[in-house]
Amino acid sequence: MNGAPPTRPWEHATVVSIEPETARVATFRLRFATPVDFLPGQHVVVRLTAPDGYRAQRSYSIASAPDGGDELDLAVERLDDGEVSGFLHDGVEVGDSLEVRGPIGGWFTWTGETPALLIGGGTGVVPLMSMLRHARATGGDARLLVSVRTPADLLYASELRERPDTTVVYSRVTPPGSMRPAGRIGRDDVAALLAPGATTYLCGSSGFVEATSALLVELGTDAATVRIERFGPS
Length: 234
Prior knowledge:
- The protein is an alpha/beta fold.
- The protein folds into two domains: 8-104, Elongation Factor Tu (Ef-tu), domain 3 (Beta Barrel); 116-230, 3-Layer(aba) Sandwich (Rossmann fold).
- The chain contains five helices and eleven strands, in the order βββββαββαβαβαβαβ.
- Strands 4-3-6-1-2-5 form a six-stranded antiparallel sheet, with helices on one face. The protein has a five-stranded parallel sheet with strand order 9-8-7-10-11, sandwiched between helices.
- α5 (206-218) links the parallel β10 and β11 (226-230).
- The relative contact order is 0.16.
- The mean pLDDT is 95.
């Protein structure tokens, strides 16, 4: 794929499965009427319309890798006072239809043409997971560094723990047998994964990306090779 595919108009997609990832995050698999062409790192917008005509919409990153099929996965975190995320978690069932527009985004995407260093904080791992899954499916060069508070907060744990292309940092509580003490991502964590010619994709809260981007600069990373996406309430 040599460029972002065109954004599709608003359309309806059917929820074919809902799988819990953590206590507050679930994966919603959507099926479209036609195959969906997207790049790893892109997102879609979900729009809800109330009976009185009130509308609310939020953006959600695609977690699955592009495979030419008609399904894709969205990871949705239940947020306090989140009108869209709350409805998706509490009001949507398998078989329901959602109004969706996308894929959207061109800057924060990876096609596999260069090595990639993926750094995510919390749910910021979601678009990076699309990139990592794409790399695993195609033989691309991508390595993931993800930071979470506790083992219970790690999304896609079965795909990430004890994998050679993944490093998990626990900032508050570590699992039994962990060699690294609890703590935020530091210089050593990042330095161990830097590679010449790599593009770095950094995603998470504003505080996370600011602190981690500062580490990258301190370690001599060219700012032009770093792409950042901030996650906010949804």
